From TrEMBL:
Keywords: mRNA processing, mRNA splicing, Repeat, RNA-binding. One of its GO terms (molecular function) is RNA binding. GO terms for cellular component: U2 snRNP; U2-type spliceosomal complex. SUPFAM superfamilies: RNA-binding domain, RBD. CDD domains: RRM1_TatSF1_like. This is RRM domain-containing protein. Residues 1-27, 70-114, 357-405 are annotated as: Disordered.
Length: 405
């Protein structure tokens, strides 16, 4: 018999022995080549049944070694001599670099100034230049009636997009051509859009528009031509970097998407109520102390009936006699307007309304009004001081009379 046949027989005998041991004892456990095995139901295979104890760990470490965490171990320090030499070399190199950077900075400044001077000179020599059609967002329109104005022109051209605004004046960049004699519109003009797509829409939609029975609009891309000689003194100055950045940010905000406000939305400014006719300037001039009493009485009345007052302001120089009362919410302000509007107090009709957030009530007084107010205030102080002095004298006299008695 060959050697392979003998080995096969031995393996068969071992299998028979394991089957016998498993059949006699637990069917899920057996011994294979001296190693106890357990049947794993989930993986459907025999796995070694090894208990992790001290003997097993000693056997494992002896055969496979111990895994060290080399990152957590302290790193060996380099020799001190090498470290000192390295620091000296770094110091020398750093000193050399600083000297070079100063020289390089001066050279760069000179080169930048030279380039700027060259470009500025070339720009002045060039003077007039042709605008690229891909960047030209200006259209030329004619066929309008002679009685058209800038407002109607802007409204008509806005049908196809947002009109660009002048960064200096904030007005739309449009121009209606007028006659030199009377300054009347000729019926044509130019309009500059923000987006290039607006130009395409204007050429498709506005070109051929029937303004009325006698006027038909024609729109085309604007072409600028130099008439006469170029005068550099009339050319507008360029925007600075900060001005250009601010202008572009404002322009981008126009196209930002914002959710629509709800129908019952109320502005924060409507929490403030404007009360007109609360006093007259003559009353304030005659009795300046009325400012404090009127302000306190108004605040007490509003807090008792409508809600907590956050702020109250009396505009003593306003001829309409204005007092503004600010609440925490709009409901309290609406209740104040409904209750006080049209009410007659001291022969005056009070007009109450919500503040629109734009109207200003503080008025600059004239020199005569200021002098009159100062005189009235000095008289009030003198009267109050004299009355206080008389009161003190009367107290002293009473004290003397009591002592004599």
């Amino acid at each position: 018999m060959d050697k392979t046949e003998i080995e096969l027989k031995d393996e068969q005998n071992n299998i028979d022995e394991t089957q016998q041991t498993s059949s006699t004892s637990d069917p899920y456990k057996c011994v294979w080549n001296g190693v106890p095995m357990t049947w794993n139901v989930t993986s459907q295979q025999w796995l070694p049944d090894i208990e992790v104890n001290e003997d097993f760990l000693a056997y494992y470490n002896a055969n496979y070694g111990i895994q060290y965490d080399y990152d957590s171990m302290p790193k060996p320090e380099p020799p001190k001599v090498l470290k000192e030499e390295k620091t000296e070399e770094e110091g020398k190199s750093k000193k050399g670099v600083t000297k070079l950077t100063k020289e390089q900075k001066q050279l760069k400044k000179r080169e930048a100034r030279k380039r700027w001077a060259e470009t500025e000179a070339a720009r002045r020599e060039q003077g007039w230049f042709e605008m690229d059609e891909e960047k030209n967002t200006t259209v030329y329109a004619d066929g309008f009636p002679s009685n058209i104005d800038e407002e109607e022109f802007v409204k008509f051209m806005s049908k196809c997009g947002v009109i660009q605004k002048d960064p200096r004046t904030g007005k739309p960049k449009i121009k209606l051509y007028r006659t030199k004699e009377g300054g009347e519109p000729k019926g044509d003009g130019t309009c500059c859009y923000v987006k290039m797509e607006s130009v395409e829409l204007a050429l498709q939609i506005l070109d051929g528009w029937q303004w009325d029975s006698a006027h038909k609009i024609h729109v085309e891309r604007a072409k600028f031509e130099l008439k006469g000689e170029f005068d550099p003194t009339k050319k507008r100055q360029r925007l600075s970097g900060a001005q250009k950045k601010k202008f572009l940010e404002k322009q981008e905000k126009i196209f930002q998407w914002k959710p629509d406000k709800p129908r019952n939305f109320r502005n924060r400014c409507e929490c403030t109520v404007v009360l007109r006719g609360m006093f007259s300037l003559e009353e304030i001039d005659q009795k300046p102390e009325k400012i404090f009493s009127l302000k306190e009485d108004t605040q007490k009345l509003c807090e008792q009936r409508f809600g907590i007052v956050k702020k109250i302001v009396l505009y003593e120089s306003n001829p309409e006699g204005v007092i503004t009362v600010t609440y925490d919410n709009v409901e309290q302000a609406d209740a104040t307007v409904a209750a006080l509007n049209g009410r007659i107090v001291a022969g005056r009709e009070i007009k109450a309304s919500n503040w629109d957030g734009k109207e200003k009530f503080k008025r600059q007084e004239t020199e005569e009004e200021r002098k009159r107010r100062e005189n009235a205030w000095t008289e009030f102080l003198e009267e109050s001081s004299s009355s206080s002095d008389e009161g003190e004298k009367q107290k002293d006299d009473n004290n003397l009379n009591d002592k004599e008695k």
